[in-house]
Amino acid sequence: MQQSSRQIRLTLNRLYFGQSTSAIRFQFTLMVIDLVIILFFLAGPYLKDGPSYIVLDYCFAGWIALELIAQHFASSSTRRWLMRPMTWIDLFVLCTLLLPYWLFNFAFLRVMRIWAVVQRPIFTLMLKRLSLFDKADIVTSAINLLVFLFMLTGFVYTFFFNHMPGIEGFVDALYFTVATVTTTGFGDITLPGPLGKLTSVVAMITGISLFVRLAQAVVRPLKVTYSCPDCGLNRHDKDAVHCKACGRLLNIPDEGA
Predict the structure, then answer these.
(1) How many CB atoms lie within 10 A of CB 181?
(2) pTM of the model
(3) Same domain, yes or no, for 58 and 44?
(4) 50 and 150 both lie in a single domain
(5) Buried b (16+ CB within 10 A) or exposed e, 219-252
(6) Does 180 lie in the same domain as 116?
(7) Which GO CC annotations does the UniProt entry carry (predicted)?
(8) Tens digit of pLDDT for each residue in 25-74?
(9) pLDDT tens digit sequence for 71-90
């Protein structure tokens, strides 16, 4: 029994973290399923009144539960598995799927599962195949920006626009979110009551700080990929003259060069 458990652990570890043909196929399948789950989450406001919504909801709950068990087996220890932020995100997402009506107000947090796609080894492999590995920071920042926008949109929709007719309510929530975090402030859509005003204040403050920083990281990343000839440090500030690790004089090519 112990030998069989150890064999399952090793097999899962190779599939989750290896780079063999079977591991890549396995990881690619997981990534496709992750994308389908994310699309289901984003389409939730339009599907929630349909008869098949609850069936799909529990099917995805079963899949995430199964994957959590598999990841636990693949991990070297329970403590290490519990230290992963994605484990707690998946556990919370699982709760919202198992209790869709009780925890509906927290369903917008499901979009955080986009990070599951980024953390898979095949994501890095795909960036290398597409010659985008040196732009990994830009891709990651773009994904973080997307997660942030959809989380805030989901919160606004859930607490303020949920009573509105399907698509209009969600689109209005997205429109309000983008207009607020970019501090454009058209004012044609406002959130009612004290909670609405506080939400707008938080969105504007976040827009000035986090949103601008994420958008800047997408358009103009703070660091570039350039390997130091002496110590091999691979990430440097765009305007770095010397290597932070060894002090070597650098000659980082300019973007326009």
Answers:
(1) 25
(2) 0.67
(3) yes
(4) no
(5) eebeebebebeeeebeebeeebeebeeeeeebee
(6) no
(7) membrane
(8) 888 888 888 888 888 887 777 777 777 888 888 888 899 899 888 888 87
(9) 888 777 788 888 888 888 88
Of 129, 63, 128, nearest to 97 by C-alpha is: 63
Q: Which tokens sit at 31?
A: 């990534």
Based on the fold, state whether residues 162 and 172 are members of the same structural domain: yes
Domain total of the chain:
3
The token duo for 142 is 């773009």
Strand partners, 236: 224
Residues in the chain: 257
Q: What is the domain-level CATH number for residue 157?
A: 1.10.287.70
Domain final residue pick, 129, 144, 179: 129
Tokens standing for 137? 């920071």
| CA 165-96-106 angle, 5° bins | 55
- Residue 101, domain extent: 1-129
Contacts of 6 (CB under 8 A, 6+ apart): none
The DSSP result for 151-215, as a single string, is HHHHHHIIIIITTS-HHHHHHHHHHHHHHHHTT----SS---HHHHHHHHHHHHHHIIIIIHHHH
Q: Which amino acid is at 228?
A: C
Same domain assignment for residues 78 and 118: yes
